[in-house]
Amino acid sequence: MVDTRQEAKERRKERKANEKEEKAFKKYIKSAKVEGLPKLNPNAAGIDIASEVHYVAVPPGRDPEGCIREFGPTTPELRDLADWVKECGVQSVAMESTGNYWVPLFELLEERGLDVIVVHAQYVKQIPGKKTDVLDCQWIQTLHAHGLLKKCFRPSKMVGPLRSLMRNRETWIQDASSYIQHMQKSLDLMNVLVHRAVSDITGETGMKIIKAILDGERNPKVLAGYRNYRCRKSVEEISKALDGHFQDHYLFCLRQALAGYEMCQKMLRECDIVLERSLIQYESALYPESESVSESESESESKSESKSEPKPKPESKPKPESVRESEAVSESKPEALKQPLLRKPKGNEPHFNVEGYLRKICGVNLLAVGGIGAVNGLTIISEHGADLSAWDSYKKYTSWLGLCCGNNVSGKKSKSGKTRVVKSRVANAYRMAASTVRNSRCPLGKYYRRMKAKLGPAEAVTATAHKIARIVYTMLTTRTEYSEGMVEFANDDQTKKRRKRLVKLANDEGMFLLDAEQYAKVVEMLLDPNDLAAVS
User: Which of 202, 229, 455, 507 is least enclosed, having the fewest CB within 10 Å?
Assistant: First the structure.
């Protein structure tokens, strides 16, 4: 198509503006003394990502019309961007991690065979002088050409679906919690104190009471009759809490909040089914031989079942609605996904055997570590997978998580040792695991309480999370099962110090300490045989 005069004028203006900014950028490069550095990536390009427009800079001299171009965010324009970059002989591309706008372009360029890296915006934003999108893309291209950019971690394609599903599951849990708050607010406005009658309004007793109220029941004694036998409060106490002032508009809000909560629970169940499918696909991609074995076993089982004669089924009684609903959910799952649960899931845990899948994928049992449950274990694996080869040591792994001490030294003086502020779901999972062992008798619980007495509660959570991250890194890299010796070896010095303190206190009081064996020998020496027989 022939450009109109107006389009030609706009193109000339853009070209002149780009030429001016290129000259200004060349002056800045000379002042920054970057030209003297060797170019490690001569065929590198830089992209400045935005919501409405992307600016791309290629090495100078690759295109007679200019080394900077502007593209829109639509898919056809992104394809044109990839074609132009390939025509310019670019092999590696660097871009900023701006929101979620970089993901489609990243995946498209990766499909075209380019080496694409995502860079943290904090490391490339320091440009003196005026800041424009054209200067940003040129600066990214220059730094990437000289090998001065460090790429962010991005998991493999097999882990990507797991991460998306777990994050989607987390949003549904958050939405469900907001609907629970709306339900509790509506009940409080009617002075129906269900949260004081039962510990959890979404439990068996709480949901029965709420549904009965919405069905028209107002008698507090009848409502208290839905009490489960395990409730701590009596029927009289519950009936007092359920005597309220019911109004239609509050009941309408309660009905909508309950519908929203049930919808979130339904979405969670559907998400669990797809999540289990992706876990099976991830496992089969890691261990393709095990898949063929399982298929052969399933075929042999199906043949043996077909040979056996079908037995007549006895007449069954009508089942209650709760049982029918649970069977409908289980029937919606494929036969390959039906695995027996070791125990009933607690809270928002997935409704499948998480421990079995994690053991097959990781080669070890992550849930054996104190504080790590089904949700935390899935979050850790879904964010970076079971392969931790991207980090050479546990020090780099904990530094990426933001769980290690900071290093701010100037003039041989440590200014600050605070941890870096990092937004990481894996770090949050480790911190959650650390906070759950504070009252535990396991070695990690003892470590948490010692750090709490020494540093404080917040620092103790970070220190314990750091230790759990080290344990998980060791388990995944060496394929060794968890044992309490992984934590107790660090407590040997503490036990020795504790013994020294006790010996010193005993000596100061004019006493001495005895071990259990020494105490038994002393008792045998002091007591007569007849006394020992009487004691035994």
Answer: 229
CA–CA distance, 96 with 106 (Å, rounded to integer): 10
Mean pLDDT computed over 33-44: 76
Distance, C-alpha 347 to centroid of its chain: 17
Tell me what pLDDT residue 430 has: 95
Domain ranges, ordered by start, for the chain = 13-145, 361-405+418-483, 502-535
What is the rounded CA–CA span in Å between residue 356 and residue 262?
28
SS (H, E, C) 274-302: HHHHHHHHHHHHHCHHHHHHHHHHHHHHH
Q: Write the pLDDT tens digit of every residue in 40-56.
A: 888 999 999 888 899 99
Helix, strand or coil for residue 37?
coil
Distance between CA atoms of 235 and 525, rounded to whole angstroms?
63
**CATH architecture classification, 13-145:** 2-Layer Sandwich (3.30)
Q: Six-digit token pair at 302?
A: 């199906």
Whole-angstrom distance, CA of residue 391 vs CA of residue 388: 6
Q: What pTM did the predictor assign?
A: 0.75
In eight-state DSSP terms, residue 182 is H
Task: Give, as one character, the DSSP assignment of residue 268.
Answer: H
Positive or negative torsion for Cα 396, 397, 400, 403:
negative
